[in-house]
Amino acid sequence: MLNNANTALNGSLTRTRFGQHRVAAIDLANVYSQLIIASPNIDPNGYSQVKLEKLVSFDNTDTLKQSLAKEKISLLSCIASGIETLTETISSNLSPANLAKHRRTYGISNDEYISDYLNFPNNTAMLCSFSINDSKTTSQTLSEMHRGTSIISQSDIALVHFYNKIYPGAENSRTAIVNIASDHVSLVVVDKGSPLCVGSLKLESEMNSLTTATSLFQEANNILASNNNATNEETSTPSSKLNYDLILLVGECNEQYLVNLRVALTNSNITVGSIELFNPLIYNFINIDALPTREQQLLNSEGYKYTVAIAGVAMALEYVGIDLSISQQPLSKQFTKEVYFYTPQSYLVKSVDLAVSTVNKIKQAVATQTTVLITAFVLSIILTGYNYYETSNQIISLDKLISEEKLALGVLKDIKTQYQQY
């Protein structure tokens, strides 16, 4: 249940009286990459919402830079995909104290990867790692686009977090979330709000996304069956059949894809209750009233294509999740059903960021106007020389006048002396 805004919340909660805290999320995994800008909102009934303010599709970095340059945001989140990261589900909560242990368990080297995690219900967690070299490159690119706070999130973790937030009955069902991107397919199995397994496969030229998705389901069922058998041997209970109450599709798909996937899963003896396109607008958590009519219609009809980016801004506004950037931010690591919007920076830090941004803009402007700068410099030298010449002449003239006045004063003194003698 989404919390009522009148509930007593943490002191760092962003409320409307503190002004708007705007964030942006970038999803690069689709045919057309997406940028979404959002801010916190309180609806007339007092419930917290994520208010979408901008939705931009782009196919080159220049368009993205131009879009960001026009916006004032306090946090920029770039969402890494499943094939860019190493993501694992953990059957216990993680903490700074046991993170190193689990990294060693999965052979994740401190010299090669940067890691972060998010804890979910029922004592489970998702651990994610990103190549340090890729993290440095991405972090540098983000810093060039945005001078404030930037983080690197992860698509599968964002989707599980978002699903648990908005889908009714998530805590009582087994759901598979399938993310069909332009170059890969990812699958996360969530049981009663807890992530059980996660996997991604790159789309090879000889395989289509439907075949790849089916392969991921088969592999996931093998893993879950193995885990169930191990648990049942310990508890001496019969194995339960592996069914899915719900399958949600995200990304590059459509209604026909649903039909084809159901047939493929049935042929693979995988039992499914319902298959749907992920609806990010369900339960009124996402507010799209500020968007142009065309974009509202787009999200109402094809919102599943933008779910990853929307999930990214939702996490960013709550300042929760993972950060795989080089300069990691202290995000909240515990999933909660309530909605808390946090301000990630103090106003002092924001002021410093603004000053740095201004200085950098001036530097950039100067760098692009070299000819004008040289001309101005030469003119300033000429004007300085002329002013020096004029000032010198004036000083000489004044010295001459002073000398003449001193001479006149001496003559008057002589006249005064002669007068006194008479």
pLDDT below 50 for ≥5 consecutive residues: which ranges? 1-19, 232-240
Shape: elongated
Averaged pLDDT: 83
* SSE pattern: EEEHEEHEEHEHEEEHEHEEHHHH
Major sheet details: 6 strands, mixed
Instruction: Indicate the structural class.
Output: alpha/beta
The helix count comes to 10
Strands ordered across the widest β-sheet: 8-4-1-2-3-14
* Amino-to-carboxy terminus distance: 116 Å
**Rg from C-alpha positions?**
33 Å
Assign a percent range to the helix content. 40-55%
How many beta-strand segments?
14
How much strand?
Answer: 15-25%
Describe the structure.
The chain has 422 residues and is α/β, with parallel strands linked by helices. The chain contains ten helices and 14 strands. Strands 8-4-1-2-3-14 form a six-stranded mixed β-sheet, sandwiched between helices. A five-stranded mixed β-sheet has the order 11-10-9-12-13, sandwiched between helices. A three-stranded antiparallel β-sheet has the order 5-7-6. Strand 12 (243-251), helix 6 and strand 13 (271-277) form a beta-alpha-beta unit. It starts with 22 loop residues before the first strand and ends with a helix. Mean pLDDT is 83; it is low at 1-19 and 232-240.
Give a short overview.
The chain is an alpha/beta fold. 42% of the residues lie in helices and 24% in strands. The chain has helices spanning 61-69, 99-105, 132-145, 155-166, 209-235, 255-267, 293-302, 307-318, 347-367, 370-421, and strands at 23-27, 33-42, 48-58, 75-80, 85-90, 113-120, 124-131, 149-154, 174-180, 184-191, 194-202, 243-251, 271-277, 286-287.
